[in-house]
Amino acid sequence: MAALIGFGGGMYMATRPPGPLQMSSAQRDALTALESSDDYDPGSILVHGEKYGVTVWEATREAAAQRCIILVHGEDQAADCRLVEDIQNQPPSTNLELVDDGERVMIWAFMTDDIGGERTVIVQRHTVDGGNGWQDQYSPEELAIVGVLQDAGYSGASLSIVGHDGDTPIWVSESSDTCLIVADSTRILGQECTDILYDTGESLDLAVDGTTYSLQSSTRRGNQLTIIRGDAPSDGVCDPDSGECAVDDKTGETR
Predict the structure, then answer these.
(1) What ranges do the domains of the chain cover?
(2) Radius of gyration of the chain (CA)
(3) Residues 147-157: pLDDT tens digits?
(4) Which end of the chain, N or C, is less surrounded by CB atoms within 10 Å?
(5) Cα→Cα distances 211→161, 170, 189, Å
(6) pTM here?
């Protein structure tokens, strides 16, 4: 069963669990691409349906320890995966920005279980007002780096700047994986990815030219970046023997 409800730019709620559906040729191609990516458990990828030109899929990862929602529109896709045990508090959700009849729109979706325990997907469509969307937040120099990252396969809409090392922006991509990236306008200097980071208490560490970039993520505090010169001291402050210090990415001061 499905219902179309007026909410903002529009909302669609699919209240039945996923099951065998007749797929279009484009959806079959998308399924083949998702299966060949090896990002998801074999045989776990299911289609919920299509709304606003975007096909909604679900899948599992890590032997069904994570449940994922996936949006696909042509060659573009976005995904988010959450631990099954955390889904009631942190349901998988993701979004895609696209152009529909000359209008820029954001398609946002999240997946959870309804009161009866059946899988429910909610899809919303919102018009993006003016400007160039997510590109507007970046300077021309930063957009040049975004181009390098897109050429490497990252989605522009999934990227954000988590901090700076001097004048160098440090990037994070949040999709089916969380990736920490350092790049310039010509190439990627370093990148590290993980499939689970939020609320684990662990860090994603990337070493580039003697500097370690350490990312921690939590629902309460969001993304936090620490920049460490040389080897990271165990207490996260200046090491009295080596003189090496962690650097605050916001102020540039050592601590």
Answers:
(1) 2-127, 137-248
(2) 20
(3) 999 999 888 88
(4) N
(5) 18, 12, 12
(6) 0.54
